[in-house]
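Sample pair:
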Amino acid sequence: MLNMKSLNLYQNSFKKFGVDPKSLLWKTRGAAHQRFRQFWAEIDFNNKTVLDIGCGFGEFGKFLLKRYKNVDYTGIDITAEFIEEAKKLVPTGKFRTIDFNKLNGQYAVVIASGVLNSNVEARLRGTSARQSDNLEYRKQAIKKMFSLTSDIFAFNMLGGHPAPQNDKDSNVWYSDSLEILDYCMTLTPRVILRANYHSKDFTILMFKPTKKGIIQL
């Protein structure tokens, strides 16, 4: 249900704005790049297989393939219109129209930028949206995305600590960054929180531990 609602939202945005950050629900291209920089600050993408979940038009992949060497980049999105444009804009990348929940296998690095911001509508079950529904949705998504990496999963999310005030009728939901961090640390003790670049956004990087300690990237 949630994916169908998200798909309809993005398809309608694409019809209205075309190949534009607004189709991806970004205010500007710069807003997306600000978040990308948090990944670059912590991860060496050289010689890595990279999965970009919710890749949109492949903007992150375009930068990776220019900035780093020997990157095997795959972008996925549920919106077929985005994927078709991404193939044109980033011809050296690999792109698929698929829900990340249907993926198996592993990539060295998994990225999710702007993917975990949806306001889960519990009203579909006859109630109003609640904090618990939104938190559980994020936990399940993080767990699945983390399972798709052999080394590191990095994502950003709207929110902060304490979480900004939420509007139950909005398309987005602000999370408590420390609540999300606590959950991530139940999956791995190797976690970085970056929350100094925006008042209502944060980035978390989760590293897969090994028997000998942290994987060296």
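The chain is about 35% helix and 25% strand.
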